[in-house]
Amino acid sequence: MKEVKVGLLGCGTVGTGVAKLLIDHKDLISRRVGVHLKLKWVADIDIERDRGIQFEDGVLITDAQRVVADPEIDIVIEMIGGEGVAKDLILKGIENGKHVITANKALLAGQGNALFKAAAEKGVDLAFEAAVGGCMPIIKALRESLVGNHIKSMTGILNGTCNYILTKITDDGSPYDVALAEAQARGYAEANPTLDVEGLDTAHKIAILTALAYGMEINLKDVYIEGISKITPLDIEFAGQFGYRIKLLAISKNKDDSIEARVHPTMIPFDNLLSNVNGTVNAIMLSGDAVGEIMLYGRGAGMMPTASSVISDAVDIARNLLSGTAGRVPSLSYQRDQIRAIPVTPIEKISTHYYFRFSALDRPGVLSKISGVLGNHGISIQSVQQKGRKTNGAVPVVMVTHMAKEADVQKALSEISALEVVGDRPVLIRIEDDKLD
Fold first, then answer.
1. Strand pairing partners for 101?
2. Domain coordinates in residue numbering, the chain
3. Angle at which helices 160-172 and 176-185 pack, to 10 degrees?
């Protein structure tokens, strides 16, 4: 049986999973593909640590350059991460005619356009199923299964750390700091959780998916990003009273001549399937003009789920090699000469529904003052509640609006913040609910 030789760069958590599947499932993969995926090299700075895998003698090395330079290597799998040495090694592999697989969403979101251009010019594949959604086959769905559709929108929970924290706040009433500490104790959050909790990781993923869905260049810099660190049990409680749960959502909408691409805490109705996606699980809903709505759901991170997606890419490339082809499926779903720069709508220009919470002094006329400012900016209130325990003479006033423009909302909240009868900065959470008018 023909061999396809593989070089693995980085043998941390996911890299170990990749090696384990290539070794433990080699017969299964061979029967399905018709070639043997041979793990020739595994390069890592630590080759002494016990990974629970029995490697053949000499497979583990510390010299990554040797892997990308080896003329026998057909596929390079980059599991190092980051945007420094990983980028250099990927480009060197491409230059040497290697097909490359990566799960490096930060690198692809920030510098992917140049990498995909280099791969296309060299006639090799750059595959990245594991970069978004762990084991969910969202890349393959967009590039292959849904090619007959105009994708209208994508809405997803794409970070398990944030979803776990919000689930803990919702189910247990835990403050954000307590829920984060538990996520860290369980290994779901890093010691420095900024990339996850401030929405950056989710933004990397939706930037990639937006490019695939609409035939545009990857554009991370214009994605609006807001994290979950200011979400409180009180807002989650009020959301429930209005019939909503709060999730960190990646939202992408096709407006024909422009795109919405944003990441922020969002209230969604109880009957929205995403509202019941809890813990560390990821999910994404896509709307296409032919298929309607579909949803993918699964573990978004972890050794074996992510490794499974890496192996999927390796098998696709091996099948291409077996038939003597490359670039059969365009990396970014569209032919390169059809990819264009589509503007991303600034957050100030979007219109949606909003939840506000004000800390208002318990005095007559306060509600009318707040409502007056909102009305002056064309913001119409759909429902309002004024309840809860008084704190320092103030009570929470919560509102849900009709459709309003973000720029108008921000101006109104700035004015309301300056009112003597309002303490603290008002809380704003956007709402995605098709049933609201």
1. 77, 127
2. 3-135+303-338, 138-299, 351-431
3. 130
Instruction: State the pairing for strand pair 351-361/404-405.
Output: antiparallel
**Residue written as tokens 């929108």?**
153
Q: Are 104 and 96 in contact (CB under 8 A)?
A: no
Note the pTM of the prediction, 2 decimals: 0.95
Among 152, 168, 205, 253, the one annotated catalytic: 205
205 is catalytic: yes
Say which DSSP state 216 is in.
Answer: B
Mention the CATH class of domain 138-299: alpha beta
3-state helix, strand, coil in the chain (%, to 5): 40, 25, 35
Q: Which CATH architecture has domain 3-135+303-338?
A: 3-Layer(aba) Sandwich (3.40)
Task: Choose among 116, 105, 113: nearest CA to 83.
Answer: 105
CA distances from 192 to 21, 71, 185 (A): 30, 40, 13
Rounded Cα gap, residues 434 and 46, in angstroms: 52
Nearest to 358 by CA among 176, 235, 223, 195: 235
Whether the CB-CB separation of 355 and 267 falls below 8 Å is answered with yes
DSSP 3-state of 89: helix
Distance of CA 390 to the CA centre of its chain: 39
For the record, the structure tokens of 354 come out as 């909003």
351-431: CATH class: alpha beta
Residue 300: left (phi > 0), alpha (psi -120 to 50), or beta?
A: alpha
Q: What are φ and ψ of residue 268, in 5° steps?
A: -130, 150
Instruction: Kindly write down the DSSP assignment for every residue of 222-247, as one continuous string.
Output: TSEE--STT--HHHHHHHHHTTEEEE
The residue among 433, 425, 369, 423 whose CA lies nearest residue 401 is 433
How confident is the prediction along the chain (437 residues), in pLDDT tens digits per residue? 799 999 999 999 999 999 999 999 999 999 999 999 999 999 999 999 999 999 999 999 999 999 999 999 999 999 999 999 999 999 999 999 999 999 999 999 999 999 999 999 999 999 999 999 999 999 999 999 999 999 999 999 999 999 999 999 999 999 999 999 999 999 899 999 999 999 999 999 999 999 999 999 999 999 999 999 999 999 999 999 999 999 999 999 999 899 999 999 999 999 999 999 999 999 999 999 999 999 999 998 889 999 999 999 999 999 999 999 999 999 999 999 999 999 999 999 999 999 999 988 878 888 889 999 999 999 999 999 876 666 666 888 999 999 999 999 999 999 999 998 888 889 999 999 988 87
Tokens of residue 242, six digits: 């209005």
Rounded distance between C-alpha atoms, residue 223 and residue 92, angstroms:
30
